[in-house]
């Protein structure tokens, strides 16, 4: 099975098997397993496959008895194989399995959909067209919902929440409104299972005809179909499934005859990253369908789980401007600090729009803290941020300048524009900058305002969060480059590539990319290595060249070691591998910062923008006295981040205690526990006792 991790689909093939739905079919299957001495089964599939596997397990004893009676196996064989252990992995692009937040394949399907939407957006804008996009999801609207949220679609149809009666008038009115405001395109996303309130299907052609007849817009339908199942897996899917696959084997190794059949699933970002919890498949998925059949639509959305409901509510908030109930007395300013990271613009867009919904005056600042000191500040409206969602880099412009170099001027502009809250979207400098502003509060009363940092950096090195905005896009960019490099290596044979990644002192980018591309080693600062480790790696590659996989890939984080530089590694590998393999260097550089944001970063940025502004609004109300804002408690300046499974706000003054400022790193990093998996998958001999497996949880 030496197929590359970059290959999509399934190498061992997949089928919907009619025979297995019958007892005779399962009897034949039991006979085949026993003949091969197999009693541990790992089933990767959707709801149907896992339900089938569960039935198979409950019938196992009876099936063996029947085989003995028919004389197909002996009593002794039946005794030896009397227990069947089953573990399931959910592989389904619909993400419709209750009890798991992300199923294998969902993220890759979203990548395909967003690629199409980005491509269609350019043609639609050129021709002033309306596009109706039909995505997969007969019973589950997850793909439609998330791609609608990630593309800022004008209208969305999902089976769980049919539109109100009379929706035709409302939709056409909305589309007409956006056009009259100067928008050159409309995007409507429809799940293939879309229905109206009476359960009658709504087809993409019906929607198209409606727009053409009522508005006369040039309208096209694009049905995405099986494109969504194809292509190369995204980084998230590769890391997720590698982790789940290991977890499944561990579950089988630990299983006893009393262990119930279990499903390995990702719940939130447990243990910070991808810690699949093992849970037993429940019946919630069926309950959703029942609620939809009985027209209990609100309940159907709740049954889909918190993240589905959250996505739906945020989509409704941001898609159309609703006039604020009343004008608020507060002004908020938004700026980008540090290096550009994909998803920054998505966060600015949602923050501006949610602020306007709350009635605040919203300012944006160009060029970070430097722009704030120079007064590059302007007020923005709802439509000024239209189309920002899918843009990479930073539309506002970003600088690394820290406030202490221009504190007086910053204070002057905060006073001049009467800014009562500051939303800083950026990397380590954003966090460090806000910390400097907080520490200057004693000197300047103007800085006693609400401040929030949205961590956005490809390095993922900001304390207070497990994931920084932009790191998913960077890992995918590095992964795509490494895929190509590996392809070139497999053509020349016996070649080892040494690839240098960015990330400062933080080894996140190297490690996660390493898992996603099946690297032989990834050198990082946090996991110290010596000349003995380098020697072991060279020997490992020498042995590998004797097998049929005659290529190697070694990743090196840019600052992993003061003396063992990329050049040093190249010289070492070249001389040690002389006559066995040759070496090449690749420095990935700034391509890791670029590109359109991935679906994850678009949605993560959107959600963080919304949550940050809602939190700031709440804090502003708390500290508003006699017509002015005065905030100087620790919790009035926080970093927003995803920690384990929840969005949390951590005061910058608290985070200071757990930060290594010299190396610009949090002192503790969750992803270090992924490093063991990288080594195990690269085929280093590692004892299984070192591996910490997931917790049992009944879903």
From TrEMBL:
Keyword Heme set for record: no
Pathway this chain belongs to:
Carbohydrate degradation; glycolysis; D-glyceraldehyde 3-phosphate and glycerone phosphate from D-glucose: step 3/4
Reactions catalysed, semicolon-separated, are: beta-D-fructose 6-phosphate + ATP = beta-D-fructose 1,6-bisphosphate + ADP + H(+)
| Keywords of the record | Acetylation, Allosteric enzyme, ATP-binding, Cytoplasm, Glycolysis, Glycoprotein, Kinase, Magnesium, Metal-binding, Nucleotide-binding, Phosphoprotein, Transferase
Report the Gene3D superfamilies cross-referenced here: 3.40.50.450, Phosphofructokinase domain
Domain named Phosphofructokinase is located at 5-251, 332-615
Q: Which InterPro entries match?
A: 6-Pfructokinase_euk (IPR009161), ATP_PFK (IPR022953), Phosphofructokinase_CS (IPR015912), Phosphofructokinase_dom (IPR000023), PKF_sf (IPR035966)
In Gene Ontology terms, what is a biological process of this protein? Answer: fructose 1,6-bisphosphate metabolic process
- Tell whether Endoplasmic reticulum is among the UniProt keywords: no
Q: Which GO terms describe its cellular component?
A: 6-phosphofructokinase complex; membrane
- Listed cofactors: Mg(2+)
Q: Which GO terms describe its molecular function?
A: 6-phosphofructokinase activity; AMP binding; ATP binding; fructose-6-phosphate binding; identical protein binding; metal ion binding; monosaccharide binding
Say what the protein does.
Answer: Catalyzes the phosphorylation of D-fructose 6-phosphate to fructose 1,6-bisphosphate by ATP, the first committing step of glycolysis. Negatively regulates the phagocyte oxidative burst in response to bacterial infection by controlling cellular NADPH biosynthesis and NADPH oxidase-derived reactive oxygen species. Upon macrophage activation, drives the metabolic switch toward glycolysis, thus preventing glucose turnover that produces NADPH via pentose phosphate pathway.
Per its record, how is this protein called by name?
6-phosphofructokinase type B
